[in-house]
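# step 3/5: fold
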Amino acid sequence: MARKRKEHPKPRKPGVNLGPFSDVTTSLVIMFMLTIPFLVESGIYISRSLPAKLRTPLQRKPQKSDIKVNIHLKADGTILLNEEPVDPSILPDLIPKLLARSVKKQALLSADEEVIYENVIQIIDLVKEKGASDVLIMKRRKRR
């Protein structure tokens, strides 16, 4: 009698472990779901309805020009207001008129190097007293 060989089943290959793969894909899907609102929504926009827009006509406000008060103190004692010589006695009357036409209410002040420090401080005080929000101090270069 012939002996039958016992056939051994072939060993199976281990299956693919999909556990970590599903964890990664799930976390990616959750991350994309959470970031989509940030990409889509860039701000809150509120607009009036069309009937409300039609009832009120568009009114334009007159725009003020931003004319600054530009004061330059020269070494010889003359004061230039917006590049024109002006009498120091009428300077307190002119500054408020010029500031009223300005949006930012700024004044620009410059002086020659030989001007006394006290004179510069007096002009700064005068301009601030007349309603300037800021006094910008600028150093001018000598023209050659």
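# step 4/5: annotate
The helical segments are 19-40, 50-55, 91-100, 117-129.
# step 5/5: archive (pending)
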